[in-house]
Every structure is written in structure tokens, then in C-alpha cells.
């Protein structure tokens, strides 16, 4: 019973702190609005609201701050990543835990089926936590991201480890990309979920498909809008001012995006079926079980993340 409660409630101390901080910010905003109403005199304010036409000009500035355009959301995401580049890996580790990262890497390796002859295109590589982990498993990696400071972190970590088989390109993944290597595998981890427009997601997958050699494999990982998220009442999409845009997907949607880009979906693997356990105790056993369970048909409806696997026909 405790296990089921943990799965559906998904308690995470780090996330809880974030939720508390968000709640405090919202309460502060509400106090400001209430104090504004009191300054006008409570009784006079309500009488005017009832007896006079509402002046919409006073509402427009407030509504304008309630949401951002896709361009503004995209710019905010870039600015946030530039600012947080040096701290990103620590924050990701704190949020998910080191043992989930082990499970994540295991699923990625199984999904990609890398060999020493493969050339991997890592779209939206960020600071390179996955790039670095896969460098020894293939011949070469082309790491692409638009964040200059994130790529600087990747350069530093590659130099520290003496990794000479990584080519770094600063480019927006939504725009045309020319690579001088024959790409045999493509990886895209938690990138599409931060692109506000479906056209941008399609453009990114088109870049992947165009650069991928025939018969090559493409793996796209995003957070899922599955059973657990729905039961817990979490939204499919989150957006707003000073908020990182975030969108989740169903397995059907992920397959559809791959097809629209000219790729042939093979399966949607699960990733994070046992996320709620924090993979403890017996971490190795949990990770092995996670890797095995990732291939069960339909499991991605019950996992935190999904890995859509497709090939270029």
C-alpha cells in the first residue's frame, strides 16, 4: 500500500520546496492585489464595481503580465540556462537523485543501441551530462545547443576527462544544421518539453531526421502525461510569466511527432517506472529492473519519462 501511495503521490522533498516557494510567491501577489483594493476603500470599491461600467483599460496591463508569447518564453528559457549553466548539474542531481541518473543512462544506452562505429548527434546537449556519459560508447559525438555558457561547461568537462571525440556546435536546434559527419544515431533529451510551439518541436525533429543516415536510429526523451500525472492532478502544460515553459506528452503524441518528421516509430520505452522509490535500497537491482521493465508494451503510460525510438526509413 505504501508503495502504491508513493507511486501516485510521488512525494519528492526537493519538489516540495519548489512548490512551497511558488505558493509563497502567489500569496505575496494576492496580498498586493488585496492591499490595492483596500487603498480605494472597500465599500466604495464594490459599489463602483456594481454601478459603473468596468474600465477594461485598467485590466489590460494585468492580463498582459499573466502569460508570455512563445518567443518570450523561449528567451526566458535561454536566459535561465545561461544564468544557471554552472549550477545546472547540481540542481538536476538534487531534484532527481544520483540513482535515477544511473537508471536514465541505462535506458538511453539500451534505446540507442550504440556501437563503437556510431556517430551520435546530441540535440540540446546542454552542459553535456549525457554527452560525457556516452562519449566512450561511440566513435564520435556532435553536441548541439544554443546556450553558450552551457557549452562552455561541456568544453571544460570534456577537457578534464580528455575526451577528444566530441564536436561542439552552438546552434538553435529549431534551425537548419549542417554536420560534416555521417550521423548514425540521434539523441534528444528533455528538449521538446521546453519548446512552446508545436512548430518548433516539429522543426527540431526535422533537423534530426535530415541529418540522420538512412537506417539510423533517433531517440527522443520527454516527460510523459501518463496515468500517475493525471491521478495526481498535475497539468499537461505549464506556462506563465517568469516560469519555464513545460509540456508533457502521451505516447501517441510522441509517435505522431516522429512520423510527422519523416521517421518511423518503433516503440516508446518507459523511463522512471520506479522513480518514486528513489531507487533505494538495492540500487543495482532497481536499475536492472527498470531497464528490463522499460521494454514492456504500454509501460510508458506509467513512467515519469518516455523514450520514443524511431528509425529513418
Keywords:
2 domains, alpha/beta, 313 residues, Rossmann fold
Sum this structure up briefly.
The protein contains 13 helices and nine strands. With about 325 residues, it is an alpha/beta fold.
Distance between the termini: 46 Å
Tell me the count of domains. 2
What's the shape? globular
CATH class of the largest domain: Alpha Beta
CATH third-level topology of the largest domain? Rossmann fold
- The CATH architecture of the largest domain comes to 3-Layer(aba) Sandwich
Widest sheet: strand order?
A: 3-2-1-4-5-9-8
Radius of gyration, in angstroms, nearest whole number: 22 Å
> Major sheet, described briefly?
7 strands, mixed
Mean of all residue-level pLDDT scores: 84
Roughly what fraction of the amino acids lie in strands? 15-25%
Helices, by number, come to 13
Order of secondary-structure elements: HHHHHHHEHEHEEHEHEEHEHE
3D architecture notes:
With 313 residues, the chain is of the alpha/beta class. It has two domains: 2-66, no CATH class; 81-311, Rossmann fold (3-Layer(aba) Sandwich). The protein is 48% helix and 17% strand. The protein contains 13 helices and nine strands. A seven-stranded mixed β-sheet has the order 3-2-1-4-5-9-8, sandwiched between helices. Helix 7 runs parallel beside helix 13 (283-293). The termini are far apart.
SSE topology sketch:
Blueprint: H1 2-9, H2 13-39, H3 42-51, H4 60-64, H5 70-84, H6 88-96, H7 98-112, E1 119-123, H8 129-134, E2 140-145, H9 148-161, E3 166-170, E4 183-189, H10 198-211, E5 212-223, H11 227-231, E6 237-238, E7 246-247, H12 251-260, E8 264-271, H13 283-293, E9 305-311
Helix pairs in contact: 7-13
Amino acid at each position: 500500500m505504501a508503495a502504491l501511495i508513493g507511486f501516485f503521490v510521488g512525494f519528492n522533498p526537493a519538489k516540495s520546496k519548489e512548490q512551497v516557494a511558488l505558493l509563497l510567491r502567489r500569496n505575496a501577489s494576492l496580498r498586493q492585489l488585496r492591499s490595492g483594493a483596500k487603498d480605494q476603500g472597500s465599500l466604495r470599491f464594490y459599489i463602483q464595481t456594481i454601478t459603473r461600467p468596468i474600465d477594461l483599460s485598467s485590466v489590460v496591463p494585468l492580463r498582459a503580465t499573466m502569460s508570455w508569447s512563445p518567443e518570450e518564453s523561449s528567451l526566458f528559457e535561454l536566459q535561465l540556462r545561461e544564468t544557471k549553466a554552472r549550477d545546472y548539474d547540481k540542481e538536476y542531481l538534487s531534484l532527481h537523485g544520483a540513482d535515477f541518473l544511473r537508471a536514465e543512462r541505462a535506458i538511453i544506452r539500451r534505446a540507442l543501441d550504440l556501437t563503437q562505429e556510431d556517430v551520435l548527434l546530441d540535440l540540446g546537449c546542454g552542459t553535456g551530462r549525457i554527452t560525457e556519459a556516452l562519449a566512450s560508447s561511440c566513435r564520435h559525438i556532435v553536441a548541439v545547443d544554443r546556450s553558450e555558457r552551457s557549452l562552455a561547461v561541456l568544453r571544460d568537462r570534456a577537457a578534464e576527462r580528455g575526451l577528444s571525440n566530441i564536436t561542439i556546435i552552438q546552434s538553435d536546434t529549431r534551425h537548419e544544421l549542417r554536420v560534416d559527419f555521417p550521423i548514425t544515431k540521434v539523441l534528444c533529451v528533455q528538449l521538446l518539453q521546453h519548446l512552446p510551439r508545436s512548430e518548433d518541436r516539429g522543426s527540431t525533429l526535422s533537423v534530426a531526421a535530415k541529418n540522420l543516415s538512412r537506417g539510423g536510429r533517433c531517440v527522443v526523451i520527454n516527460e510523459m502525461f501518463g496515468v500517475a500525472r493525471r491521478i495526481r492532478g498535475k497539468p499537461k502544460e505549464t506556462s506563465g510569466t517568469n516560469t519555464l515553459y513545460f509540456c508533457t506528452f502521451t505516447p501517441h503524441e510522441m509517435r505522431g511527432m516522429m512520423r510527422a518528421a519523416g521517421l518511423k516509430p518503433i516503440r516508446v520505452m518507459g523511463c522512471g517506472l520506479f522513480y518514486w522509490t528513489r531507487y533505494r535500497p538495492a540500487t543495482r537491482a532497481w536499475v536492472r529492473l527498470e531497464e528490463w521493465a522499460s521494454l514492456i508494451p504500454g509501460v510508458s503510460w506509467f513512467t515519469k519519462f518516455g523514450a520514443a525510438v524511431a528509425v529513418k526509413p
